[in-house]
Design brief:
By secondary structure, this protein is an alpha/beta fold. The protein contains seven helices and five strands; from the N terminus they run βαβαβαβαααβα. Strands 2-3-1-4-5 form a five-stranded parallel β-sheet, with helices on both faces.
Amino acid sequence: MNEVIPEKLVIVTGLSGGGKSYVQSTLEDLGFYAADNLPVSLIEPFLDEVVGREGKDKIAIVMDVRAHDFARTFPRYFTEVLRARAPHAILIFLDARDEVLVRRFSETRRPHPYGVDLPILDAISAERRELIDVKAIANMVLDTSQFSVHELKAEITRCFQLPGYVMPMLVNVVTFGFKYA
């Protein structure tokens, strides 16, 4: 199959609890076709399918340590393979201070990917060490410690909203009735 190149390709990665899900949903709101937790080996087939067959031209891929061997294989793949195919690809690395990540994990009560047998601070430290090479090649390192979810959405929108694009207004309608009115 001919290699197809999306108009915009954004890879979102970073520390667990850094805000990847919020960034993904913001990019989807901006018209990006997004995939989460895609293994490195499936990036090119995914691009062939989505861009080549479905005609999507703005793609966002969220990747992190949940994918097998991500921290070891992704830096070389991104710099040698993906950059050759899509030179305009943008890699965003989401970071946050340790105390903020600890608070986020305690608020959501979700386990850290490394935290099954480790205290949360040890798990965060291990992930931070493992992702040093990924962070080093990022086009944008964004410390989300100081952002609320709304501020993070505004920052991503500011960075990736295309000229002339107007974010569609979302309307939620909730109805209810009184049974014995």
